TrEMBL record:
This is WxL domain-containing protein. It comes from Ramlibacter cellulosilyticus. It comes from the Bacteria. Residues 1-21 form the signal peptide. The keyword Signal applies. Keywords: Signal.
């Protein structure tokens, strides 16, 4: 047992012995001496990716989860008299149904990276619910002010397909883009009134 232990210890000492490094050098003892010594350089630039959806800005986002508030309003049909707040008020109404107004909200989005092709996908963390009522998240539409920083199409649930962010420099290896994503909702008359809440997570990735 002792010989085996000593053998292992000797191997460890050999493996741990530092390798000898010899610098490049030259010698010349002529009448007009001239010699060279070379150095090799290694510059290691690490990959980074900055992604922001909402308030804040590079180099640090706010760290908070912003809220997109979409308030569905109604327009009174022409000729009708707007109701006065209160109980038992009289309204001149021809029976025509009011029209719903499709709301929208703008959110700033920023991507900065030197890691090559960047992709973005959406994940429905929780669908839009109000009590027992549900609105499919796919009814929330997204549009981007910059085609180079597109917004993914939201699914009903789960993960969306990925979209590619266009690079801006060095053959698309470096990306610096800032856009506005517009979230909008087209009301459906069959959906019940209520305050619906849900959450989406966006993920930016590099190869």
């Amino acid at each position: 047992m002792k010989r085996a232990w000593r053998s292992r210890a000797a191997l460890l000492l050999v493996a741990a012995a530092p390798a000898l490094a010899v610098a490049d050098q030259g010698t010349d003892n002529g009448a007009s001496p001239s010699t060279t010594a070379d150095l090799e350089f290694l510059v290691d630039i690490g990959k980074f990716l900055f992604f922001r959806v909402g308030s804040g800005g590079f180099p640090t986002a706010s760290g908070t989860i912003d809220t997109v508030a979409l308030d569905v309003g109604m327009t009174i049909p022409p000729g009708a008299v707007m109701a006065v707040p209160g109980a038992g008020t009289t309204v001149n109404w021809g029976g025509t149904a009011p029209a719903f107004v499709a709301p929208s909200a703008n959110v700033p989005v920023e991507v900065r990276s030197n890691a090559g092709q960047i992709t973005i996908r959406a994940n429905v963390v929780s669908t839009l619910t109000s009590g027992g009522n549900v609105i499919p998240m796919s009814q929330i539409l997204l549009a981007s002010s910059d085609p180079g920083l597109p917004a993914p199409t939201l699914p009903n649930t789960g993960m969306s397909a990925t979209v590619n962010v266009a690079g801006t420099a060095f053959s698309n290896l470096v990306t610096q883009r800032l856009a506005t994503w517009t979230f909008s909702y087209v009301p459906v008359p069959t959906q019940r009134a209520g305050t619906y809440t849900g959450q989406i997570s966006f993920t930016a990735s590099s190869p």
